[in-house]
Amino acid sequence: MRMNKKLLTLLAALFALSLFAAACGDDGDGEAADTTPAPAATEAPDVEPDDEMMDHLGDGSLGVVTVDAGGAVQIRSLNAITGDVAFFGLPLERSVILAIADYGQIHGFDVDLGTTLDDLCSNDGGQAAAQIIVADEDVLGVIGTSCSGAAVAAAPLITDAGMVLISGGNTSPALTSDLAGTAGENYNVGYYRTAHNDLFQGAAMAKFVFGELGLTTAAAIHDGDPYTQGLAQAFADAFEAEGGTVTGF
């Protein structure tokens, strides 16, 4: 079976949808659940992606891999599963495990997550884990990283090896683009994310501070990490655009 890398992106989208569906299943209001029987499940049609969808996902230049009969589609999870931010990375890893179990096979092929890896929420951690992943030529793609700093190091290695990297946690503008669509300095073809861009978050904070709190001066603080630096810069730029003054950065 020859599986185009762009199909993995569709799979990741289904992963995200299954996660959101699970998260939204209980509204937590304490009311009795509706006991009306659910309609019988029907098998989804096998729909081939159209040209418009393929254009959006890319030109296929990342290539293809061959999955032999009886083999499995190999993907990997790369998230922060130890350390101070494991509270963030472990749910991301577990959502991948749940999605694979829920979604099942792809055209009769099992999906194998293999050994999950730890990005340590750091540049060094992302690089070390990516080197392990790219050594296996059967891997189609990776779900991760949790932290933008890890992605800065991991994304070039993974995408250069012809794999896709799809993150549910990265928000640094440098990894994708600005709001005009200009590619960021750390963008790599084959990198995708389902998380928001910090330019939106920075603008929202600036509007609140300037418009709702009525403050006209502010300082932005970061620790040099791609995530904190990108978010602080997004706030500072948006705050000045609102008419405020940034006293320190």
Describe the 3D structure.
The chain is α/β, with parallel strands linked by helices. The protein has two domains: 2-22 and 50-195, Response regulator (Rossmann fold), CATH 3.40.50; 201-248, no CATH class. Helices cover 41% and strands 16% of the residues. The protein is built from seven helices and ten strands. The chain has helices at 5-23, 51-57, 86-103, 123-134, 148-160, 198-212, 226-242, and strands at 2-4, 64-66, 72-79, 110-112, 117-118, 139-144, 164-167, 191-193, 217-219, 245-248. The strands form three sheets. Strands 3, 4, 5, 6, 7 and 8 form a six-stranded parallel beta sheet that branches. Strands 1-2 form a two-stranded antiparallel ribbon. A two-stranded parallel ribbon has the order 9-10. Strand 3, helix 3 (86-103) and strand 4 (110-112) form a beta-alpha-beta unit. It is elongated. The chain starts with a strand and ends with a strand. The model is unreliable at 1-6 and 13-36 (pLDDT under 50).
CATH class of the largest domain: Alpha Beta
Which CATH-level-2 architecture of the largest domain?
A: 3-Layer(aba) Sandwich
* CATH H-level homologous superfamily name of the largest domain: Response regulator
* Uncertain segments: 1-6, 13-36
Going by helix content, strand content and strand pairing, the class is: alpha/beta
In total, how many beta strands?
10
State the helical fraction. 40-55%
If you average the pLDDT, what whole number results? 83
Query: How many strands, what sense, and barrel or not for the largest sheet?
Result: 6 strands, parallel
Rg computed from alpha carbons, rounded to a whole number of angstroms: 20 Å
Q: Looking at the structure, what is the overall shape?
A: elongated
Oligomer: single chain
Beta-strand residue percentage: 15-25%
The H/E string reads EHHEEHEEHEHEEHEHE
- Helix count? 7
Distance between the termini: 53 Å
Under CATH, the topology of the largest domain can be stated as Rossmann fold
| Count of separate structural domains | 2
